[in-house]
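quick one, 319 residues, struct below
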Amino acid sequence: MTAIQELARPKEPAAAKGGHARPVRPKPAERGDNKAAVLFLAPWFAGLFLITAGPMVASLYLSFTDFSLLDPPKWIGFGNYVEMLADDRLATSLRVTFEYVFLSVPAQLALALALALFLDRGLRGLTIYRSIFYLPSLLGGSVAIAILWRRIFGNDGLINQVLSWFGVEGPGWIADPRFALGTLVVLNVWTFGSPMIIFLAGLRQIPVTYYEAAAIDGAGKLRQFRSITLPLLTPIIFFNLVLQIIHGFQSFTQAFIVSGGTGGPVDSTLLYPLYLYKEGFASLHMGYASAMAWLLLLIVGGLTAVNFFLAKFWVFYDD
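---
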């Protein structure tokens, strides 16, 4: 082999010749970048372990104990979970919560989609309308709005005053068990702003050419909505559905303020988080409340899993 051929031949790595390849050490600048990344991520990890993961592990342990906040926890195994099976008030709170979620979430999403379709028509001042309609989502879970809602649906509230103009004597909407839960449902439907914004963003992603082709084929607005808009929006509908179901099962402030913390007449507005709060912080049954929290986690997780399973039958992804 000539000297030129020897120089042109690619060199084999040391490991291929039986030697050991040298480890590639990061440059000082790269090590500095890693330290900066760890420094910026440290608060997030601290929050994850100290605020989220740590309390979750602690609540799982407390769910197997008899704990009153005043005395050390006493291990009782599955005693709290067995007690749930005989708790009639817990069963009532579950029934009320399921009714609340399955009434308010579909109505909220339907209203949000209708308004998103209206705003998608290219109105002037769209940003202003969008901000106004989004405002209830920011205020709906606040104490001030819950107090306002109590005033609107009170015996001498705005609703009954309007009915009195037509000679109709309105009931005590909050005090009547037939209507008390309905006031909370209306309040949750009123906070449609967040899903509306998401629907509006999804509508903006649908190509206009689809509607132009459908119009050329003679399809009307209703047919275009049924054959184009709804199928292409199903991923957005699914996303909003999962989020709002989770949010519905976590509703607490509205039920606490509107019912005065009692759960309403004959527990008609006793949502599950409200009952959990009453057991944990009013009755000091913290171990039992921890077990209730984990039951709520299982319920929400189970419903989410069912939604993901059913999604393959109706959610359309334009791949």
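The mean pLDDT is 86.
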